[in-house]
Design a protein that fits this description.
heterodimer, A: mainly alpha, two-stranded antiparallel sheet, 7 helices, globular, B: mainly beta, five-stranded mixed beta sheet, 4 helices, 30 strands, disordered N terminus
Chain lengths: 153, 431
């Protein structure tokens, strides 16, 4: 919440500066900065908020999962690896045994196709940049393509 | 008091405050000193009790059974080097196991000794191994006692108990949270009637001495409306079956309009039941709110936290425990070693929560409930704590140990087993 308020503060300050500044070049620069900053911050922040709402209860605040029940997202090749596999897990869910970081997990992962392409992309981008993971962001377009394909994992 | 009279009021107040702080501090250090004295094997126990570690790091243990000669058998959730049962023996009477052997090709939760056999359950069947006199390992070939349980990954543990008339009672948990289809999804209504109740979400009764019984054709559904009762036990003194249910999850996540984040953390209560033949305990239609002492309608069936509706007819618990504590074993104490207050009372192993996130996780302890005849005669209290090894558990992964099984030794000691890496504590009492 504090992060959002701070971000809103920065944006509004920049926006105010932008409006009072009569120099055209400066105005363009500030407009550019505002757009860039808000795009970047909002993706990370909304990813974190969506994670809290839809994923945290099972995968936990720190992405460590629940031993013998729900796999960790922390330092996981399922998260860092093929983004398409990851998108499909969220869209279609998982049922049966999987191996994550040398441990077997068999609980149901519910399908979450009620989330929008953008929401799924934001959640996955968030987990791929957090919990000791470091992988490229996921684009809403990638989710859109897979959503239309027949269910396959 | 004399000092107070000769000093100015403001100063008196200050001194008073400091005094109280000193008293509190002294009290605190006294109590921690007491705790330190009684801590053994990292556990906090009541005065007079002590614990020793019997064995550790032997695998992901679940339940535990102890033979009359003191031999210990532990079920494993996952096979270790191809085996699912650990047998342990203490040959020099120091309480620590010095012989540890593995056998059995199945993994699972339930384990118990009855009529010269070691009974064991995987998630799809109950089997038994013939015990051999003097020998730690039983006959390697098992015979099937009950089968036909449909494989379900969620709440699959077929924990069991025996009555004194040769019957076997088996927990058949629901492969579901609240009978939604699809399961665990936002705003999906519950199936009505819930089709899972015919085959799951109840306790099935079998004949302990009969082989190859099928759940649906030979088994008898003794009680229904029970989401998952990993902790179940026949009480030989009261002569009744008792069980604790793992209450449903995620009220807030799926129904945020009626349940705040705190409601999701604190509801529903984990219920402690006296199980009656033919009883309906309410899952998935109802859940129990111990703060209101009410069984209310689940949101999947139109509930909002207040509506009772069809839940009037459902059996109520004898006692409620805080939400999501995850009761994984129940033991009625029949020994002579512990003080008389413990006689006939119930010990419950709480595995500890995962679904109180993002708040602090709780449980991870063994509690005691005093009993008189059929019912609890007082409030529950924490008996053994400190299993987690950390002061604050934010995620289950923070915990070093999670209590999962209980057994009583021939000398009246209480054994606790945990399932992260496998550790057994023997808790004893000395006057």
């Amino acid at each position: 919440m504090i992060k959002i308020i701070t971000l809103a503060g920065i944006i509004s300050t920049l926006y105010t500066c932008n409006r009072v500044n009569s120099d055209l070049a400066g105005k363009q620069f500030l407009e550019f900065s505002v757009i860039k900053l808000s795009n970047f911050k909002s993706t990370i922040d909304s990813g974190a908020i969506l994670y809290q709402k839809y994923c945290l209860s099972c995968h936990q605040k720190d992405g460590s999962g629940v031993p013998n029940m729900f796999p960790p997202l922390k330092n996981s090749n399922w998260v860092n690896g093929d983004p398409n596999r990851l998108i499909k897990n969220v869209l279609f869910g998982l049922n049966g045994e999987i191996e994550v970081n040398d441990e077997v997990y068999s609980q149901v992962m519910p399908k979450m196709d009620y989330l929008s392409d953008r929401q799924i992309a934001e959640i996955l981008s968030y987990i791929r940049k957090n919990f000791d993971n470091n992988a490229k962001a996921v684009k809403p377009e990638d989710v859109k393509i897979l959503r239309k394909q027949p269910k396959k994992n | 008091m004399v000092t107070y009279k000769i000093l100015k009021p403001k100063l008196m107040k200050k001194i008073g405050k400091i005094g109280i702080s000193i008293i509190l501090l002294l009290n605190y250090s006294c109590s921690s000193a007491q705790n330190t004295e009684t801590k053994t094997g990292s556990l906090s126990l009541p005065q007079g009790f002590s614990a020793i570690v019997v064995a550790e790091a032997f695998g992901q243990a679940r339940h535990i059974a102890i033979n009359t000669n003191g031999d210990i058998y532990v079920s494993l959730q996952r096979l270790k080097n191809g085996n699912g049962i650990v047998a342990l023996r203490d040959t020099n009477n120091d309480g620590v196991a010095d012989v540890i052997k593995y056998f059995g090709t199945l993994s699972g939760t339930g384990i118990g000794i009855h009529d010269g056999y070691l009974y064991f359950s995987s998630d799809i069947m109950i089997v038994r191994y013939k015990l051999r006199p003097q020998e730690l390992l039983p006959d390697p070939d098992y015979e099937i006692v009950a089968k036909g349980f449909r494989k379900n990954y969620q709440h699959g543990a077929k924990s069991f108990t025996f009555d004194s008339e040769g019957n076997l009672y088996v927990n058949v948990g629901a492969p579901s949270n609240a009978c939604q289809d699809p399961d665990r999804t936002f705003h999906t209504p519950g199936q009505d009637p819930c089709p899972l109740l015919t085959e799951f979400a109840g306790i099935w009764k079998f004949t302990a001495g009969k082989t190859n019984q099928d759940q649906m054709t030979d088994g008898y559904r003794y009680a229904t409306g029970l989401r998952n009762c990993v902790a179940l036990s026949w009480n030989p003194i009261a002569n009744h079956l008792y069980a604790l249910q793992h209450g449903r999850d995620q009220l807030h996540e799926f129904w945020p309009e009626n349940y705040t984040e705190d409601d999701g953390v604190n509801l529903p209560s984990e219920e402690f039941f006296l199980i009656k033949d033919g009883g309906d305990y309410g899952w998935p239609y109802c859940y129990y709110n111990d703060l209101q002492n009410l069984k209310v309608l689940a949101p999947e069936y139109g509930g909002n936290g207040k509506i009772i509706s069809r839940c009037t007819d459902k059996e109520k618990p004898m006692m409620g425990f805080p939400a999501h504590y995850a009761p994984n074993d129940l033991l009625f104490y029949t020994g002579e070693q512990f003080p008389s207050t413990y006689k006939s009372g119930a010990f419950i192993a709480f595995h500890g929560s995962w679904n109180r996130a993002p708040k602090e996780q709780k449980g991870y302890n063994v509690v005691f409930v005093p009993f008189e005849k059929d019912f609890p005669s007082g409030k529950w209290e924490v008996f053994a704590d400190g299993f987690a090894g950390v002061a604050k558990i934010m995620s289950p992964k923070d915990a070093l140990h999670r209590p999962c099984g209980l057994a009583q030794g021939p000398d009246g000691s209480l054994y606790v087993v945990e399932d992260i890496k496998g550790m057994i504590w023997k808790i004893s009492y000395k006057k």
